[in-house]
Amino acid sequence: MKHLTFTILLLVTSFCCAQTVADFEDFNIAVDSSNNNSGEQGYFVNGNVLLPNIFVDGDFSYWSGWAISSTTDTTTPGFTNDLSAITGGGAEGSTTYAVTYIFPSSIIRLTNDGIGGYVAGMYVTNNTYAYLSMLEGDGFAKKFGGETGNDPDFFKMTVKKFEEGALSTNSIDFYLADYRFEDNSQDYIVDEWTWLDLSSLGNADSLEITMSSSDNNDFGIKTPTYVCVDNITTANALTAIGDVDVPKVSIYPNPFENHIQIDTDAVIENVELVDVMGRTQAINLVGNVLYLDDVQSGVYFLRMEINRQLMVTKVIRR
Amino acid sequence: MLSALGQDTTVVLPVVKVVEEIRKNQTGSIVVDLKTDKNQSVAEALNESGVVFIKSYGQGSLATAAVRGSNSNHLAVLWNGVPLQSPMLGLLDLSLLPIGFFESTQLNLGGGSSAWGNGAIGGTLLLDNRMAISEAPQQISLSLEAGSFDHYASHFKGQWKNDKWTASTKVFYQQAQNDFSYEIAPNLPKRTQSNAALQQWGIMQSLQYQLPKNQTLSFHLWGQKSEREIPPTTTQNSSEAVQNDASLRTTIAWAKTGKQFHHQFRTAYLIDDNHYLDPKQLTDNLNRYQQWSNEWESTFYGRKNLQIVAGVQQLAVAAQTGNYVTTIKRPQVALFTSVKQRNKYFRWQFGWRQEWIQGQKSVGVPSLGIEKSIGQVNIRAKVDRNYRVPTLNNLHWNPGGNPELEAEAGWGQELGIDALSKNKNGESIFFSATVFHRQTNNWILWTRLANSFFYSPQNIAEVNSRGLETSLNYKLEKKNFVFQIRSLYQFTLATNELPILIPRTAVGEQLYYTPKNRIGVTTSLAIKDWQIDYMHQWTGSVRTFSDPLPAYLLANISIKKEWRFTKFKLNTFLNIDNLYNLSYRVIEVRPMPGINGRLGVSVAM
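ok -> structure tokens follow
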């Protein structure tokens, strides 16, 4: 019987511009390796940021959200090389960085001492798969510039913030590739670590990253929607708001037979169980017990809204 | 049954062949006979006939057909009655079928599931070696040709017979670099297609033995191999991808004919490998399937021109690919029957097929066709129900395969009129018009559901296909002189009836790669030993996954000369395609060649 416990400590005191840098070196990943499986907890934590990750193991494993990488392959095209930064390493000469597959968005959540603070900025760059796809084209996505070299293509990431459950209307855009110039010699695809200042977004609970591209079809964006980040720098909020009691959430058993117990002092605003294909399953929540008699064996994701925060955890029915 | 090329509706055949005709030539429907002496693929022959739109990825590349506003996996393809579509993909690459391998290549337009089962929604392509093997003269022929883009091909055919045995051997080989130049824009230098070479070879061996008491035993073996480089798109710098296809297909059949019956048993085995490699992208995918089938068919001839066919087919497939968890096996059994009768008022035919396929609900599909001739005018009508079960990739692909998929199915209707007029001056005019309608439900599309990490197939679409097919042919035949003009016009509306988020589809939008309008005119002149054919085709704009492709015009010309000697005959031919060197696309980002030609010679003894 496994218990999963989420504990969020919210201690905000008044600091004067103290900054913490999430550089991912603490993961101690060997050079040319990667970790896209955060295990049962469903996230990676470094510094004051929490990066959600879902890894489904089986005959065909797949991941979503974030991965930690130190791979250096800057030449192999295609999806088999989706965890490498085009720079061949981390920012400022480091080895480790984070990679995200944005489908349709990725989240950076502030945690630990960063809660209530803001993200000052981070280094961003393209991953090798997206970079070479835009530079050379592949069987699916176009070479930027198109057939004539003059197509006004672009690949852009947009960052917004969540604060108290609401998504901000203001945003920060960063072009990972820009071919919209009249003078084609100015066209570029980002191939080095570039600082992205996010301080203007202000205090946040989390940041949301979405992508847009000029290369679309009826299925959506064709450009591979990956981005690499490093040295995510958070700063504490300037105003102290005192200590806040933190809810603990404990989920058990997992794997489960026909029910799941959700132990928490907080109010559970919503619970949803979806399968790996995104289909919502029939559930029956009675008090803090989730009855799942009609659910078939397999892997599922328990999505809970607690204190206006969305938590997702993988559960397995035997 | 009526041939779309203006042939007489009355077909007189030896008794041994009638049983195939009942299922093969459905009353009320229209049939196209692809009779060509060119060394070309079935895709090229269909494209030249103009009766269907061929979706081609380029010279020597994948080619599929969309018939009457349907999908490329809605065309059933059968070889000697054995289905050939891949159970993994549900379709067959028509560019890999050399038309010279078959004595008969026939396209039945419209639904055919009551006769042939799974996948015969838009049409059925029937490839046959059975028909003429016992009628074939003894001969040996060899054809050599060379053409644009380093194209070389050779075809050998040998037929031999005595009182008991008939044997036929056909071999072909072809290669090409396909390094054609193409235009991106008038103000830009032309580019040269790269990584587009191909090499193909194949053998068709047929044997027939005449047993006592009107029994025959026949054997056919078809082996083929194709190695194709996959060229880059127009928005891709380079490609190193290759695709190798290899197949081995065999059938053994026994038949017995009596005064009022014909029995036939056929067993078949197929194995098909498709290997895709891309060393640049570190991709190596091998897809393999095997198919075993056994079929018993009995035909009874009753009084008053009544013919009844009844039979049973057992079929099993086993497929493997890297994205299946294990080898996937799927058995199926079908019972089928067809009743055909001709009286002084009209001709009618009723068919029914009941099929049980593992993992699917049992499917029962009927069809009813009626024809009435008034002088030289023939009126025909048909209604049928057709279906296509999900492919093995739809059901079992990992990740994303959906084992809960249901079969696509729907009703089709068609009404047609044909008129033939001849005079004593050797002139004849043939006119044909058909209106058709088909509603297909549970149409399968790959999509992405909310909160899903990947794409998966779902029964999310409904398609309403309807249209008009017309042809007008004029022929003047004199001694040593034949002049013909064949024209056709097709209007097809095939629209989505449900809004879909991914792929973004609005109600009323035309299906992808389905032109609404197509026009074709072929002029033929035969004087003594000369034959000249000129073909002009216009294909309307098509909707793609991104921007629409504009309409395009194509013109081809073919010139042949025959010399006859005492013991052999010599043929020379020149084919020129895209005569006006126009730039066009059938699929976005896939270039097509400009003017190109082939020159050849063949000797037959």
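Chain B touches chain A through 39 residues (CB under 8 Å).
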